[in-house]
Amino acid sequence: MKKLKLLITQGLFVALLSLALYQPIVLVLELLTTEFFLLFIRISTEVKTLVLFLILLLIVFSKKIISALGQAKTQKTVMLVFVFSLVIGFTYHKYWLHLQKYPRIYSKEPDWTIQGSKIVIEGKNFGQAYEIGEVYLDDIKLESQYWTNYKIIAKQPVTDDYGKHRLYVKRQDGFTSNKIEHIVKNPGEIND
């Protein structure tokens, strides 16, 4: 009976420790890849579950950790780390909700355009089709032809302002996206 109680206690603390480590690892990974480096629009639930499973496996197969989890001092430390992890999780969630106010451009095609060309912009938080905002190349407003929360197709107007520009999205509520480089070429200088 004593062994069963110890096994249940260790199992509980393995789960708590896994969750405690999961929060900072996954949350930091998600923040860096989706908000700062703009590599992904989001990290899928499957990837997050896989990370949790890997952390759980590492703890379960680490005999030193398992044997230490039977000690009262270690159990208190695990509980403290778990509570700290919950605080980190709630704080991150609040910050993440704040970041969702801002549109983000992750990619656009093509790399350069001439007058009348379409630019496909992909990202997030652009606003729904009934909340169409504006797309700009510096101060040149583009015609929006298609608009969803994740994708915009805009048409470049006629301009004689060639060269590098900063492409960005301004949502209907005034929030502005990150600015990315876009090149406007002179149609007379393009070789067939």
SSE layout and pairings?
Layout: H1 2-36, H2 45-60, H3 63-68, H4 72-99, E1 104-109, E2 112-113, E3 118-124, E4 134-137, E5 140-147, E6 151-155, E7 163-170, E8 180-184
Parallel strand pairs: 2-8
Antiparallel strand pairs: 1-3, 3-6, 4-5, 4-7, 5-6, 7-8
Task: Write up this protein.
By secondary structure, the protein is α+β, with helices and mostly antiparallel strands. Helices cover 44% and strands 23% of the residues. The protein has helices spanning 2-36, 45-60, 63-68, 72-99, and strands at residues 104-109, 112-113, 118-124, 134-137, 140-147, 151-155, 163-170, 180-184. Strands 1-3-6-5-4-7-8-2 form an eight-stranded mixed sheet, with no helix packed on it. A hairpin with a 2-residue loop joins strand 4 and strand 5 (140-147). The model has no long low-confidence stretch (mean pLDDT 87).
